[in-house]
Write a structure and sequence with these properties.
- This protein has two domains: about 30 residues; about 80 residues, N-utilization substance G protein NusG, insert domain (mini-chromosome maintenance (MCM) complex, domain 2).
- Helices cover about 20% and strands about 30% of the residues.
Length: about 140
């Protein structure tokens, strides 16, 4: 049985990795992993003492939770609870049907939001120093 090959008769040449290929793959994985860690854990981001969670209900600001210690805010007669801890905020409890706001988990980066559409509640992370850039428009 004859193997498919190129003009030089070297069919396996394109399937073997050499040290340059391995080095390139490792470099790409390192840069990707570093980028994911930077975005996920907020390395170089705003400090927890500089963050606020702004809580809006029906478009009105109903609470501001500093994210430097454990705090809770009860909304809608206790049917919804927003919880802040150093560096993060979440909806701990809600009576909405699909629980999407609860499933959103902790948000930590300025500009991130948690929305509960049925209860018309919005939780937004904000930096007090205003040093966060969230968009550039040309």
């Amino acid at each position: 049985m004859e193997r498919d090959s190129d003009e030089s008769g070297n069919a396996d040449r394109f399937y073997r990795l050499n040290w340059r290929d391995v080095l390139l793959i490792l470099a790409i994985l390192s840069v990707s992993g570093g980028t994911i860690a930077y975005l996920q854990f907020g390395v170089g981001g705003a400090a927890a003492a500089d963050l606020d969670a702004m809580v809006y209900e029906d478009g009105r600001l109903v609470g501001r939770l500093r994210m430097d210690a454990h705090r809770r805010l009860s909304l809608r007669d206790g049917r919804m609870i927003v919880e802040a801890e150093p560096g993060g905020v979440r909806v701990a409890k809600s009576d909405c049907p699909r629980q999407i706001c609860v499933a959103a988990g902790w948000v930590r980066t300025p500009g991130q939001v948690i929305t509960c559409v049925p209860n018309r509640v919005l939780v937004k992370v904000r930096s007090r120093s205003g040093g966060f850039l969230d968009a550039v428009v040309h």
